[in-house]
Amino acid sequence: MFKITDQNINNLNELDTDIIKNQAVGGIVYFQGVVRNHNEGKEVSSLEYESYEAMAQKVGLSIIKEAIKKFGIEDAFSIHRTGHLDINDTAIWVITTGHHRKEAYEANQYIIDRIKSEVPMWKKEHYAHEKAQWIACHRCQEHSEHIHD
Amino acid sequence: MQINLKYFASLKDEAGVSNEKIETDAKNIEELFEQLNTKYKFSINKSYLRAAKNEEYVNFDTLLTDGDTIVFIPPVAGG
Predict the structure, then answer these.
(1) Which of A58, A83, A96, A141 is deepest in the core (most CB within 10 A)?
(2) H/E/C letters for each residue in chain A?
(3) Distance (Å, rounded) from C-alpha B45 to C-alpha A117?
């Protein structure tokens, strides 16, 4: 399942998923992406995420489904924030569950890499001392293409 | 034909609108982009953009159909 929300997702226990309750699962991997206070030498004060939501839902869900099939994991869940986020706020969760840890780790990395390079979402950085700007994640795209060729 | 356009991120800032309907004689997405670029003078180079037609990634030589929703996708940066 892939979700987009403008609501706070900082608390893992409040996420709308029950994939960790599967009793066949032996390994659960959680990736939590949070807003840091710096980027490329600049002091970041907050972030703003925007999405082309209808398409982002489709692309995100297809990535999740492909990961489940490719790595043979039990299930996967991801939720991404939109709107204005403060430092330390959670921007994204990726949770993968498997019979064993190896496939859960690999699938988790695969999912976050592809979300960063394919899901139509954009990030605007607000700085302490400069004008805000949209971030182009060229390096994410190069990284993902390299890994998944 | 009539095309629905949506703009996001830097393209939205530069177009000054988040969506619009236009009449165009453009045959494909490339021609449509050139028309819009003439109008809005986007600062991002076309080589960095991807295109979406009706919520799916497509190539720039994809033909347009009346009523299509087209979005030019700046480099994404989720996560």
Answers:
(1) A96
(2) CEEEECCCCCCHHHCCCCHHHCCCCCEEEEEEEECCCEECCEEEEEEEEEECHHHHHHHHHHHHHHHHHHHCCCEEEEEEECEEEECCCEEEEEEEEECCHHHHHHHHHHHHHHHHHHCCEEEEEEECCCCCEEECCHHHHHHHHHHHC
(3) 18
Tally Cβ neighbours within 10 Å of residue A74: 20
User: How far apart are the CA of B1 and the nearest CA of chain A, in angstroms?
Assistant: 23
How far is A112 from A134, CA to CA, in rounded Å? 20
Helix (H) or strand (E) holding B58: strand B56-58
Torsion of CA B77, B56, A51, A17, to 10 degrees: -100
Parts of chain A with a pLDDT under 50: 138-149
Q: What is the ipTM of this complex?
A: 0.94
Distance between A58 CA and the closest CA of chain B, angstroms: 8
For B52-62, how does the pLDDT look when each residue is reduced to its tens digit (9 = 90+)? 999 999 999 99
CA distances from A12 to A18, A31, A113 (A): 11, 11, 21
What is the pTM (predicted TM-score) of this model?
0.90
Query: Best residue in A52, A59, A92, A145 to probe B by mutation, most B CBs within 10 Å?
Result: A52
| A122 to B71: CB separation less than 8 angstroms, yes or no | no
At B4-40, the pLDDT tens digits run 999 999 999 999 999 999 999 999 999 999 999 999 9
